[in-house]
Give the backbone structure.
Amino acid sequence: DVMRPIKYTSKPQESVVDARKKLISHKVNRLPVIDDSGKLKGIISTIDLLDYIMPAESGSRGGRKGEASVKLGDVKVNSVMQNKVYTVKPDERLNNIISYMKDNSVSSVIVAESGNPVGIITPKCILSFIVPLAQNFTELVVTGLSNTYIDKKYIAEAASRKAISRMEKLTEIISVIMDFKEHKKQEGSEKAKYEV
C-alpha cells in the first residue's frame, strides 16, 4: 500500500506540549486529531507548532501574532490544528491522489473510512512506492505512421492510449508518462517511428 498506517494521534483538548512530545518521540511530522469516537477533526503538524511557538528559554511562548504571551501547557491542540483536512478513500487510485494533492497544494492527505482515519499519504510515501516500480517500466514503440500525416504526434498518442487501455485489462497501471521521440524515416521508407 502507498499509505502509511496511522499509529499516533492527538485529541482536540490535548495540550500542544503533549502533541509536540509525540511528534518528536515518534519521529513524525503530522498527527491526525480525532475525537473520543475516533472521528477525524483536524491535523496538527510540526509546521503548525512552529507557526505558533516562538523559541524562548522560559516556559512561556509568544503564541500567534498579536496574542499575549501564554503558557504552552495551557494551549490546546484545537486552537493550533488545521481544521480543514484533505481526505481520500482507501480504494482511491494513486493517480487521482497525486492530482488531488497538486490541485490543492497540500503535502499530505488522510485516508479515511467512514470518517475514521486509517492512514496518511505524503510525497515521501508516494516516492517510496513508485521508485521500486521503476524496474517494471515498459517502453512502447509506435511504428508505421505515414510521414504525410499532418500531426503524427497526435496519431502516436492516440495509438499509445489505445494500447494502454488494452494493457489495463491485463495488469494494474500505476502511472503513465508520455514522451515522444520521432525517429528519422529510413531511406526508401515512407513510415515514421515513434518511441513513447
Notes: The longest helix spans residues 152-168. The first strand starts at residue 4 and ends at 5. Residues 55-61 have pLDDT under 50 and may be disordered.
